[in-house]
C-alpha cells in the first residue's frame, strides 16, 4: 500500500511539474509567437493588425487560440476592415511552434472585405505598414521583416458561415456580398497561390454555388488585383425571380483577377416557362463567354448562344447593378436566324398546338430593369422580326389565308391554291406585357396586308387596323353573278394602278382572329 501511494505521489508530482514546465514554456513562447503572427500578417497584407487575445496551449497538443482579430488594409479606418475574425483555433506539431507552420486553423465569424482599387494618383494614407521595412524594392519571401526565419504558413484553414464583401470602384454601386457557409483553404501563405473549396449561397436566383480553384499570391498594393481561377457548379430555382420559372443547372470555369474575371460555361433549364402566361415549358440551354467585375458583380456578356426548344438566338450585352436597387439590370442585343414561330408561341400562348409555324429572323434590343415587378411587366423589347413560310395550324384560319390568296390572284375557288405560306415583316416593341407591331406587312401570293396594332400577351387579344391590297380587280375576286355586279364599283376600291384596296380590322385572339372590312375607311381611301 505504501509503495502504491509513493508511486501515485511520484506520478502526480511529475504531472504537476510537467504542467508547470509547459505553462512556463507557453508563457515564453506566447509573446514571440503572437508578435510573429501580427508582424507576418501586417507585412503580407500591407495592413495594421490588432488582436484582442492570443493564447498558446501545449497540452494535450500545441495549439493557439485567439479572439478579436482585425486587419485593416494600409491602416484605413475610413473603410471596413480587410479581415475580421471573431475567434480562431489553430493546431500544430511541436516543430511548428518554431517553424511558423500551422497544421490547421478553424475560424468562426470570418468576414473578408476587398477594398476598392485605388486611383493611380492616390497616395497611401498610412505610410509603411507595421512590420514593413519601408524598402519597396525588397523582395517578400514570406518571412517577417528583419527576421531570417522560415515563412509563416497554414496547411489548412476551415471556416463556416463566412462572408466575402467586394467593394466597388464606383460610389453608385453596392458592394458585392457572398455568404459562404463552407470554406476550406490549403497551403495559405499569401505569397504563393493557395487552393480553395467553397460552398456559397446565391440570393437571386436562389441557389447553391460549389466552387474550387486557386487564388494568389496576394496583391498587397491592390487586393482587387489578386489572381483567381477555378471551376464552379451552380444549381438554382428561377422561380425566385418573379415572372419566370424552372430549375437551372450551370457549370463553368473562370480566371483572372478579382476585378476582371474571364468566365465561360453553360446552363441547362429543362422546364423554362413564364408562369403568368400559363403557357408551355421549353428546354433552355446556353453557352457563354463573359467578363465579370468581381468588385460589383457587373457582367459583360461577350457572346451567348441560346437554344430555346428548337430555336437558336445569339445575345451580347451587360448585366449591371445600381446602388440602392435590388437585383441587376439586363441589357442585351439579341439576334436570330434560326428561330421557330412554334417555339415562341409555345412559350407565350397557352393553346396547343401553336397557332402558327414558320421560320423566324429576329433582331432586337432587350432591356430587363431591376425591381420586384413580374418579368413580363417590366421587360422591354424593340426590334425587327421576319417570318417566312408561315402557316396556321387551325384549319379554319388557314382556309381564310388560302381564300385571301385565291381572290388576290383573281382565281377564287381554285383548289390548286392550298396551304399557302405567308411572309410577315414588322418592327415591334414590347412594354408592360403588350406587344405593339408597327408597319406590319403580311404577304401571300396575290395579296399584301399592311397594318399596325397591339397584342396583349396575357389575354391573347388582338387589336389591329390596316389595309389589304389585292393584285386582282374587285370583280375578279368573286365568282358567278357577283363578278358582274361588282364591276361598276371597281373605281371605288382601286387606289392607284390596278388591283383592289380594302381597309380591314383584326380583332379576336391569336388563336381565333376575326377579320372584318371597314367600308367607311375603304371609301375614304384610308
How would you portray this structure in words?
- With 526 residues, the chain is of the alpha+beta class.
- The chain has a domain of 131 residues.
- Helices cover 17% and strands 49% of the residues.
- It has a 24-stranded mixed sheet that branches.
- The longest helix is centred in the first third of the chain and has 44 residues.
- The protein is elongated, with a radius of gyration of 36 Å.
- The chain starts with a helix and ends with a helix.
- About 9% of the residues have low confidence.
**SSE-based structural type:** alpha+beta
The number of helices is 8
Radius of gyration: 36 Å
Average pLDDT value?
A: 80
Shape: elongated
Oligomer: single chain
Any chance you could write out the topology, listing elements then pairs?
Layout: H1 2-45, E1 47-57, E2 63-73, E3 83-91, H2 96-99, E4 101-114, E5 153-160, E6 162-166, E7 176-188, E8 194-202, E9 206-215, E10 227-237, E11 247-257, E12 260-272, E13 282-293, E14 298-308, E15 311-322, E16 325-340, H3 341-348, E17 356-368, H4 375-378, E18 380-392, H5 395-408, E19 422-431, E20 434-444, E21 447-456, E22 462-470, H6 481-486, H7 490-493, E23 500-508, E24 513-517, H8 519-524
Parallel strand pairs: 4-5, 4-6
Antiparallel strand pairs: 1-2, 2-3, 3-4, 5-7, 6-7, 7-8, 8-9, 9-10, 10-11, 11-12, 12-13, 13-14, 14-15, 15-16, 16-17, 17-18, 18-19, 19-20, 20-21, 21-22, 22-23, 23-24
Amino acid at each position: 500500500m505504501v509503495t502504491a501511494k509513493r508511486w501515485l505521489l511520484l506520478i502526480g508530482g511529475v504531472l504537476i511539474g510537467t504542467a508547470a514546465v509547459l505553462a512556463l514554456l507557453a508563457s515564453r513562447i506566447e509573446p514571440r509567437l503572437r508578435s510573429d503572427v501580427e508582424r507576418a500578417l501586417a507585412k503580407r497584407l500591407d495592413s495594421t493588425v490588432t488582436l484582442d487575445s492570443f493564447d498558446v496551449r501545449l497540452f494535450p497538443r500545441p495549439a493557439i487560440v485567439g479572439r478579436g482579430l482585425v486587419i485593416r488594409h494600409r491602416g484605413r479606418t475610413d473603410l471596413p476592415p480587410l479581415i475580421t475574425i471573431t475567434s480562431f483555433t489553430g493546431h500544430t506539431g511541436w516543430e511548428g511552434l518554431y517553424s511558423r507552420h500551422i497544421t490547421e486553423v478553424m475560424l468562426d465569424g470570418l468576414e473578408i472585405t476587398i477594398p476598392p482599387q485605388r486611383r493611380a494618383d492616390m497616395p497611401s494614407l498610412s505610410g509603411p505598414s507595421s512590420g514593413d521595412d519601408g524598402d519597396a524594392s525588397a523582395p517578400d519571401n514570406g518571412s517577417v521583416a528583419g527576421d531570417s526565419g522560415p515563412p509563416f504558413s497554414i496547411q489548412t484553414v476551415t471556416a463556416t458561415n463566412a462572408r466575402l464583401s467586394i467593394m466597388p470602384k464606383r460610389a453608385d454601386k453596392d458592394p458585392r456580398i457572398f455568404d459562404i457557409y463552407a470554406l476550406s483553404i490549403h497551403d495559405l501563405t499569401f505569397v504563393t497561390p493557395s487552393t480553395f473549396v467553397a460552398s456559397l449561397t446565391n440570393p437571386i436566383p436562389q441557389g447553391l454555388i460549389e466552387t474550387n480553384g486557386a487564388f494568389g499570391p496576394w496583391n498587397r498594393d491592390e487586393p482587387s488585383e489578386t489572381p483567381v481561377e477555378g471551376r464552379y457548379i451552380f444549381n438554382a430555382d428561377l422561380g425566385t425571380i418573379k415572372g419566370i420559372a424552372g430549375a437551372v443547372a450551370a457549370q463553368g470555369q473562370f480566371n483572372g483577377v478579382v476585378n476582371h474575371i474571364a468566365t465561360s460555361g453553360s446552363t441547362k433549364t429543362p422546364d423554362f416557362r413564364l408562369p403568368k402566361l400559363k403557357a408551355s415549358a421549353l428546354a433552355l440551354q446556353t453557352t457563354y463567354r463573359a467578363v465579370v467585375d468581381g468588385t460589383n458583380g457587373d457582367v459583360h456578356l461577350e457572346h451567348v448562344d441560346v437554344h430555346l426548344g428548337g430555336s437558336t438566338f445569339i445575345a451580347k450585352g451587360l448585366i449591371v447593378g445600381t446602388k440602392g436597387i435590388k437585383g441587376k439590370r439586363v441589357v442585351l442585343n439579341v439576334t436570330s436566324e434560326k428561330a421557330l414561330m412554334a417555339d415562341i408561341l409555345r412559350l407565350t400562348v397557352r393553346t396547343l398546338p401553336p397557332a402558327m409555324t414558320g421560320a423566324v429572323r429576329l433582331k432586337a434590343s432587350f432591356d430587363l430593369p431591376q425591381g420586384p415587378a413580374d418579368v413580363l411587366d417590366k421587360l422591354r423589347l424593340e426590334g425587327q422580326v421576319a417570318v417566312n413560310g408561315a402557316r396556321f395550324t387551325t384549319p379554319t384560319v388557314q382556309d381564310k389565308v388560302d381564300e385571301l390568296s385565291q381572290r388576290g390572284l383573281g382565281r377564287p375557288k381554285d383548289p390548286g391554291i392550298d396551304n399557302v405560306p405567308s411572309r410577315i415583316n414588322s418592327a415591334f416593341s414590347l412594354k408592360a406585357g403588350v406587344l405593339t407591331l408597327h408597319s406590319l406587312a403580311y404577304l401571300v401570293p396575290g395579296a399584301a396586308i399592311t397594318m399596325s396594332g397591339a397584342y396583349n400577351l396575357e389575354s391573347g387579344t388582338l387589336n389591329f387596323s390596316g389595309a389589304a391590297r389585292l393584285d386582282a380587280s374587285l370583280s375578279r375576286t368573286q365568282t358567278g353573278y357577283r363578278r358582274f355586279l361588282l364591276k361598276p364599283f371597281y373605281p371605288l376600291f382601286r387606289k392607284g394602278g390596278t388591283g383592289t384596296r380594302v381597309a380591314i380590322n383584326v380583332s379576336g385572339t391569336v388563336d381565333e382572329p376575326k377579320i372584318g372590312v371597314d367600308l367607311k375607311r375603304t371609301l375614304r381611301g384610308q
